[in-house]
Amino acid sequence: MATSSSLPFLLLSTLLAAIVVLLQSPVSHADLDHQKAYFHACLSNKVWTNPSAPVSVIGALYTSTNSSFSDILNLHIHNKRFNRPNTPKPIAIITAFHESHVQAAVVCSKASNFQLRIRSGGHDYEGFSFVSDIPFILLDMYNLKSISVNIQNGTALVEAGATLGQLYYKVAKNSHVHAVAAGVCPSLGTGGHFSGGGYGNLMRKYGLSVDNIIDAKIVNVNGDILDRKSMGEDLFWAIRGGGGASFGVILSWTIKLVAVPPLVTVFKVNRTLEQGVTDIVYKWQHVAPKLHRDLFIRLQHEVHHKTVQVFFIGEFLGRTDRLLSLMKESFPELGLRKSDCLELPWVNSTVFYTEGPIGYPAEALLFEAKYPAQSYFKSKSDFVKKIISKKGLRSIWKKFIESEIIVMQWNPYGGRMWEISASATSFLLGIRHNSPLRKHL
C-alpha cells in the first residue's frame, strides 16, 4: 500500500508503441532493391499466405507505386510532425485483413532484414508505430477490428485494430451496466493502448486495462499464433504493459468487463487564478488519490486570455446527490454545485469526454477520423510523487502564461491502483509503488 505522503499521478497522457528492433547498418540502393525483391517474393510464398486472402491483392499491400499509398499512410497519423515530406516512409504498407497477413508481415520483414512497425490507432506521441530511420515495413491493423461481447461471462474479445470507441459502443449495445477500464479518447487503437498499460477514468475503481486482460492472441517472431496457454505466463506478463510489439504482434485481447451503475455523474468546471485556483489545485493534490474510489477527477490546465484556468473534469459511478455529499466532505474547496453535474449512462459519459455537445449520441464513438493530421504537437508523460508546493504551482502558471500553448493533464491514482502489486504486470508508464521494477524496466 502507498503511504499517505505518496502522490503518484500522470502529468500528460501518452501511449508508448514499442517496436521490434532489428539492428542494421546503412544499406546501398542495390542492397535495398534486393531486400525489396526478397520481401515481395516471401509474401508470395504459399507457406505464409492464405489462399483465400493473399497479401498481394489490392487493398492489403501498398507500395509507393500505388496511388493510395500516401492516403493509407496518413490515415491514422494524428500529428503533423510525422507526415512531412522529409519524414521517412515505409517500403510497403500491409493493411491486414486476415491473421495470415500478420504472419506474413512478421516473417517476411524478418527474412528480408526490414524493420517492422505495427500501428493500430496511431496515437503514439513519437510516431514509433509508423516512422523509422532505417528501411521498414508498416503493418497497419485497423481492418482487424472484430468485437465479440459475452455478457453472461462478463468478457469481450476485441481485435487489435478496433478503437476504444467501437469497443465501448459494442459493450453498451449488450449491457447498460458493463464497461471497459480504458482511456477517454475513442480513436485509440486497442492493440497499442492495452499493451502500453491502458489508463483511464475507471482506474481508481478497477485498475488499468492490463489489469483486466485475461487472454490474448499474438504472432511471435517466428510467425506462430499463440494464446495465453501456448505463449506461457512470462510472455503474457510482458505484453500487458511492456508494449505488445516488443515481443510480437497482438492480434486480439480477451478482457474482463467491469460493473457500472445504470447512470453515472460527470462534471467539468473551471477555476482561474482570480478565483483562487492555486489553493484549489494544492488541495486537490492532497485529496485526489484518497477520494472514494468511485470518483475520478482529472485536471486540465490551459491559458485563456492571459490567465491560467484549470478544468476539474470528474466522473462518479453514482448519482449526483451522493457525489455532492462526498465532495462536501472531502473537497469543498471546489464548490461543486448540482447545476454543474450531469447524469447519463456510462457509454454517454465516454462521449462527454470527447467534448461533444450535451446529448450527443453514442454513435459518435464510431466515428473514425480519416484525414491528414491538422496540427503539430509534442507530448510527454511523467509521474509526480510529492506534493507540488504553492510556490511551485505559481512557477508553473508563470511558464504557462509565457508560452500560451502548453496544456497539462493531471490524473490521480489511489484506490485500486494502490492495491495491485507492482509486479503484477509489466506496465511501463509509471510506478504504482516505489518499486525499482517500475522505474527501471
From TrEMBL:
<keyword id="KW-0325">Glycoprotein</keyword>
<dbReference type="GO" id="GO:0071949">
    <property type="term" value="F:FAD binding"/>
</dbReference>
<keyword id="KW-0285">Flavoprotein</keyword>
<dbReference type="InterPro" id="IPR006094">
    <property type="entry name" value="Oxid_FAD_bind_N"/>
</dbReference>
<keyword id="KW-0274">FAD</keyword>
<dbReference type="InterPro" id="IPR016169">
    <property type="entry name" value="FAD-bd_PCMH_sub2"/>
</dbReference>
<feature type="domain" description="FAD-binding PCMH-type">
    <location>
        <begin position="86"/>
        <end position="260"/>
    </location>
</feature>
<dbReference type="Pfam" id="PF01565">
    <property type="entry name" value="FAD_binding_4"/>
</dbReference>
<dbReference type="InterPro" id="IPR016166">
    <property type="entry name" value="FAD-bd_PCMH"/>
</dbReference>
<protein>
    <recommendedName>
        <fullName>FAD-binding PCMH-type domain-containing protein</fullName>
    </recommendedName>
</protein>
<dbReference type="InterPro" id="IPR036318">
    <property type="entry name" value="FAD-bd_PCMH-like_sf"/>
</dbReference>
<dbReference type="GO" id="GO:1901696">
    <property type="term" value="P:cannabinoid biosynthetic process"/>
</dbReference>
<comment type="similarity">
    <text>Belongs to the oxygen-dependent FAD-linked oxidoreductase family.</text>
</comment>
<keyword id="KW-1015">Disulfide bond</keyword>
<feature type="signal peptide">
    <location>
        <begin position="1"/>
        <end position="30"/>
    </location>
</feature>
<keyword id="KW-0732">Signal</keyword>
<dbReference type="InterPro" id="IPR016167">
    <property type="entry name" value="FAD-bd_PCMH_sub1"/>
</dbReference>
